[in-house]
Write a structure and sequence with these properties.
With 177 residues, the chain is of the alpha+beta class. The protein has seven helices and four strands. Strand 3 and strand 4 form a beta hairpin. This is SH3 domain binding glutamate rich protein.
Length: 177
C-alpha cells in the first residue's frame, strides 16, 4: 500500500507549503512509503484529488486544498486530521497502515483489527478512539466516586442521639426567646 500525499509544488501560500512540508517531513522521518502527487503541474492529479475527497471533508467553496492524504484510493484526511492523529499517537491507524513493532499504537491496532497484517480501517480507527476516550472517562468517574466516598467518610456525621439533643436545644432556645 502506498500513501499518496497530494501537494501543490508551486503554491503561492506559505501556510500550504508549511503544511505540505510537515506531512512529507514526518513521513520521510518515519520511513513511511509515500508518493507526492503534484496537483499544480498535473491536471489529472488535481481532478482525481478533488473528486475523491469526501463531500463532508470539502470546504464550503467545494475545493479541497493540499495536502490531502490517501492510502491508495482510500481517503485518510487533510492536514488537520493528520496533525490530530500525530498528536494522539494514532498516525498509523489514520494512514491505514500496520504500526511498526514497539510503538504505542501496536496494542490498539492488534486488539481492534480484522484486516490482514494488523491494518486498521477508518471505521475501526474511530472505534479505537471512542473506546480509549470511554475508558478514560470511566476511569475518571471511578476516581471521582472514590474521592466523594473518601470525603464523605472523613466527615463525621452526628449520631441520631446528637441530632435529637441539638434539636431539643434549639427548641428550648426558641421557647426562651
Amino acid at each position: 500500500m502506498v500513501i499518496k500525499v497530494f501537494v501543490a509544488t508551486s503554491s503561492g501560500s506559505t501556510a500550504i507549503k508549511k503544511k505540505q512540508q510537515e506531512v512529507v517531513g514526518f513521513l520521510e522521518a518515519n520511513k513511511i512509503d509515500f508518493k507526492q502527487m503534484d496537483i499544480a503541474g498535473d491536471e489529472d492529479n488535481r481532478k482525481w484529488m478533488r473528486e475523491n475527497v469526501p463531500g463532508e471533508k470539502k470546504p464550503q467553496n467545494g475545493i479541497p486544498l493540499p495536502p490531502q492524504i490517501f492510502n491508495e484510493e482510500q481517503y485518510c484526511g487533510d492536514f488537520e486530521s493528520f496533525f490530530s492523529a500525530k498528536e494522539e499517537n494514532i498516525i498509523y491507524s489514520f494512514l491505514g497502515l500496520a504500526p511498526p513493532p514497539g510503538t504505542k499504537e501496536v496494542k490498539t491496532a492488534e486488539e481492534t483489527s480484522n484486516l490482514p497484517n494488523g491494518e486498521v480501517s477508518g471505521e475501526e480507527h474511530k472505534v479505537v478512539e471512542e473506546t480509549e476516550k470511554s475508558e478514560v472517562t470511566e476511569e475518571n468517574e471511578a476516581h471521582t466516586e472514590d474521592n466523594v466516598d473518601a470525603v464523605a467518610n472523613s466527615i463525621e456525621l452526628p449520631s441520631e442521639e446528637q441530632q435529637e439533643e441539638e434539636e431539643e436545644e434549639e427548641q428550648e432556645e426558641e421557647k426562651e426567646s
